[in-house]
Amino acid sequence: MKNYDLEKRRLVLSAVAIGIVVIYIIRLFALQIASDDYRKSADSNAFLKKIEFPSRGSITDRKGKLLVYNQPAYDIMVVTNEMAGHLDTLEFCKALNITKADFINRMVNLKDRNKNPGYSRFTQQLFLSQLSDKDFSAFQEKLYRFPGFYIQKRSVRQYQRPIAAHVLGDVAEVSQSDVEEDDYYQPGDYIGKMGVEREYEKDLRGVKGVQILLRDAHGQIQGRYQNGKYDQRPHPGRDVQLGIDADLQELGERLMEGKLGAVVAIEPKTGQVLAMVSSPTFDPRSMIGKMRGKYQHDMTLDPAKPLLNRAIMGQYPPGSTFKTGQAVTYYTEGIVSDSTRYPCHHGFNFKGLHVGCHSHGAPIALVPSISTSCNSYFCWGLYHMLSNRKKYKTLEDAMDVWRDYMVSMGFGYKLGIDLPGEKRGMIPNAKFYDNAFKKWNPLSVISISIGQGEVNLTPLQIANLGATIANRGYYITPHVVRHVQGKKLDKKYLEQHRTKGSVRSYQEVVAGMVSSVRGGTCAHAVHPGYSLAGKTGTAQNRGKDHSVFMGFAPVDTPKIAIAVYVENGGFGAEFGVPIGSLMIEQYINGMLTDGDAARATAIQKRHISYPFKRPMSRTDSLRLDSIKRVNIIRDSLKKVREKQDQAEAERVKEAQARKDAEEKEKKRQPQNEPAIRVEPEKLIKPEKKAKDKGGDKKEKEKEKNKDTRKENKEKPKVKEKPKEQPKGKPKEQPKAKPKEQVKEKPKEQPKVKPKEQVKNKPKEQPKEKSKVQTKDKQKSKETVKRAK
Ligand SMILES: [Zn+2]
pTM for the full model? Predict the structure, then answer.
């Protein structure tokens, strides 16, 4: 019996022992092989993961001319575990041409996990980046003497010509947030920061490769892990072709030299952007390598704001170029017809309101009103549209129909170009005016009919208006990239957007723009060998007016539509027309005639002086900011404290009064009384807070209103009422052919600002959507202000 027990116990014990061993073996297996295999062990001593960077895609212009390519650069990497104790620091510093202090500094930063979160003693860490070819070859010869150091080849961007910096964008080291958002990136990697480089980052960057190498106990490389079974080859990035014509772009940048503003050219049939100039610009080559940070910093302090892409971020009053869109709206809605003629007594005169115009034949019909850019015609058109109670039930309805036309033309919202940072401009609607004015009527908003007042467009939107007219009523969303290697173009860049305007209305506008070139405001436009349609604009401004031009050519088979916007450039004919028409000539003829080449040089040399203030240094602006912030906090704290004190005093007073009353009562009935309830503190506090908040808001609103008041201070020039007021529609005038007295000097300076607008100052802040719009507008005004 005993023997049998012993036998049994032995069996149990050995079974347990075997069980434990088996479990251990399974655990070991799981740890060593099954769990994520090499990935985890690659971080250990035995493996070395070597990243192979793909070459970034190149960027070419529409004719295949190279704009951006790659140049090899070398990073020095270090595995600190291998380096320790073996390095002759002095010799190393000499080989790399750095100081010992620099060496120590770099090592400290590299090991600091706050600055370099991916630090590990066993993996390669970036020691020095972007070594030039020359420095690299000197260092490479001595590399074998510095154990633990490796060279990693990668490429940096290089630019064939110093043009199109805003479109191309740039490439720089990833930020902490880039690494967190996309696990493709590791600290020290490169990423597109602006322009096409950023928008097409995923196409351009390619796919990284990796080599897994095996090391022995001494850290020496033994070869590839499992013969490279787990290695991945890098895939190069996709090449990108732009719609930009490099020669046209270069001419545009030359013509805009010394001026603030933008030029956008579009191929109407495809929506491809042919040129996009934002002035001032900068040399994209300055944004490569170690100096990038310094250049970028300098440019952020420059009051001319060279980093701002005005073509898509500048929001400007479109001035008279906007009249074309008005003509389309009035005509399609049946507000005006071929036989409509409007009077112009040196402008629009009605109910004490005067909007100035230059002298020309009147009454005037649609086509000549475009070619002479008559303010009166478009004011009357809008007036009759907004006060037409047969067609539109209310003023608000009429206003919203107008808004719908504008939105259908691509205004008021982002067009959706393939570049980061596009702004939407501003198209007011009925709700906006309901909020801005207590009461408003068609005259309160009349200035929007001539592209002033609340209306704002980006130069891209003005160019797109030109493309839409060239297409007689449709546009394709403008885009800068024409083709991505091995990929189809995004569908949204192929769709046609029809506006609400009829084809017939667009034909009228085209006739007006052609006549404008023949003998109207664009008479000085050059167009050797092809037909041209154009419209000038002179956008009112507190300083000197802005010079604007919009046009396209050839008239019947349009190849190019263009918008030119020159800040403080004066009349449209002064800068807008020559710059726009020279660029059209360059694109259509592929070159300029000798005479026009000389004209181009003259325009290039004509610089506009802007009253820039001394740029505020970063420390100055930071200090000013912090002073402002401290003052705001101090004031609001003071108010809160005052209110608290007041409330506290009242509370004490009340409590005392109650106590007194209670004691009186007690004296009268000295028996068990229910306790008198005193208002708990909690109930008072939230109320107080709400009040305080309200107070702060009012303060802010007051300040905001102050600003708007300042802007409205400019008094409108109201001339005396002309005795003969045209009552109702002055349509169907005898078909007396309006003399087309077109003078060379196109004075299109409207001297507007309706009285009502000044009287009914927007005391209340517009709410919701319109509030956002106003903010946008204020911002844009600020940017323009700051730019001056
Ligand atoms: Zn006129």
Answer: 0.71
